[in-house]
């Protein structure tokens, strides 16, 4: 039986309409907001490491995944963690070093996912005009560090790698936003800190980095207070789903992502370019994180920075929300 041209055209139109309807339905299902919104408060460190959260907020991805989000700025992971444990929010962005130190005092919190890593975020900066060209030149000198943080672990790792002892230098504990000023006026001879302070230091004075790239890989993580109820689990799962979507968007649109961060933190594109190349954005919970936590815990005990027995650091890693989110993505 021959099919007339008119019948063939009609069939093609029907097929095209069906395909379009299926595509629209699929896209609608992918971006359809989730049921009732769950309120969530996240303490967020004001650093480009927090990019996935800034992007998720800007693009409305938290709302898309059923989260009524409030982002509360804080000055570094130490402050974020302290505020969370005092009930200011359910979540906080912290490095693994901050998690390790707090695990000796309180195990009623968990890391639910790493969302970015960097092997060059921390730096040991000094002023070359004062004759500092290598870390060995700092023997007997004062170094500004942020207590109980990645800043302190990084400094001691550099000293060990250079054949120096922790007692070879004087450490001066400072808030992150005081480091540059204290070095500039000569109150400390060098500073150990993360970005954006490294960039801000070199933007205002001539500095030399006495550290080594790759000596330490920083992980930035989302932590929460332990709550074993269904709402808390669902909230964490939705937040991670929003961050996963944000990370995919960041990888596809790096320049637009940098523009969001630049506007949010009021920093220049040059500063972001300085740091961005070292960032790896990815949701994960790997054995590398556990190994780093255990290594840093032994270091803290050996240097009398903490008291008591080493806790079981596996107890502060909870991948249940991450696994549930990933299972849902696979099942779609």
Could you describe the 3D structure shown?
The protein contains 13 helices and 11 strands. The longest helix is centred in the first third of the chain and has 27 residues, at 5-31. The chain is of the alpha/beta class. It has helices spanning 5-31, 51-58, 61-64, 77-85, 96-103, 150-161, 179-184, 197-204, 230-252, 254-265, 269-276, 287-302, 320-331, and strands spanning 38-45, 67-74, 91-95, 109-118, 122-126, 142-145, 170-173, 190-194, 208-209, 218-225, 279-284. It is globular. Strand 6, helix 6 (150-161) and strand 7 (170-173) form a beta-alpha-beta unit. The protein is 46% helix and 20% strand. The protein folds into 2 domains: 38-118 and 217-331, Periplasmic binding protein-like II (D-Maltodextrin-Binding Protein, domain 2); 122-209, Periplasmic binding protein-like II (D-Maltodextrin-Binding Protein, domain 2). The model is unreliable at 7-32 (pLDDT under 50). The protein has a 6-stranded mixed sheet, sandwiched between helices.
Separate helix tally: 13
Shape: globular
Sheet with the most strands: spatial strand order: 2-1-3-10-4-11
Give the percentage of residues in beta strands. Answer: 15-25%
Average pLDDT reading: 87
Protein name: Putative aliphatic sulfonates-binding protein
Pfam families: NMT1 (PF09084)
Subcellular location: Periplasm
Keywords: Signal
Q: Which terms would index this structure?
A:
332 residues, alpha/beta, D-Maltodextrin-Binding Protein, domain 2, 2 domains, 5-stranded mixed beta sheet, 13 helices
């Amino acid at each position: 039986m021959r099919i007339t041209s008119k019948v063939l055209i009609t069939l093609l139109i029907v097929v095209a309409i069906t395909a379009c309807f299926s595509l629209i339905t699929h896209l609608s299902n992918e971006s359809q907001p989730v049921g009732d919104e769950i309120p969530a408060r996240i303490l967020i460190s004001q650093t480009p490491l927090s990019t996935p959260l800034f992007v998720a907020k800007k693009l409305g991805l938290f709302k898309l995944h059923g989260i009524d989000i409030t982002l509360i700025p804080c000055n570094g992971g130490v402050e974020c963690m302290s505020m969370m444990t005092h009930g200011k929010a359910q979540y906080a962005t912290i490095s693994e070093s901050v998690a390790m130190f707090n695990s000796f005092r309180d195990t009623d919190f968990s890391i639910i996912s790493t969302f970015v890593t960097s092997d060059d975020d921390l730096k040991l900066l000094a002023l070359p005009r004062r004759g500092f060209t290598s870390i060995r030149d700092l023997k007997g000198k004062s170094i500004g560090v942020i207590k109980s943080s990645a800043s302190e672990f990084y400094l001691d790792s550099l000293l060990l790698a250079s054949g120096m002892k922790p007692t070879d230098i004087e450490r001066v504990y400072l808030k992150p936003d005081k480091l540059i000023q204290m070095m500039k006026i000569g109150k400390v001879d060098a500073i150990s800190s993360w970005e954006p302070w490294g960039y801000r230091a070199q933007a205002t004075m001539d500095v030399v980095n006495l550290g080594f790239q790759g000596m330490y890989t920083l992980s930035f993580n989302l932590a929460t207070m332990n709550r074993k109820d269904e709402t808390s689990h669902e909230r964490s799962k939705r937040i991670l789903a929003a961050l996963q979507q944000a990370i995919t968007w960041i990888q596809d649109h790096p320049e637009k992502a940098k523009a969001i961060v630049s506007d949010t933190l009021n920093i220049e594109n040059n500063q972001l370019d300085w740091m961005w190349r070292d960032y790896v954005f990815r949701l994960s919970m790997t054995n590398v994180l556990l190994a780093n936590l255990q290594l840093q815990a032994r270091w803290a005990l050996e240097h009398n920075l903490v008291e008591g027995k080493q806790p079981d650091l596996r107890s502060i890693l909870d991948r249940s929300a991450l696994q549930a989110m990933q299972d849902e993505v696979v099942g779609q």
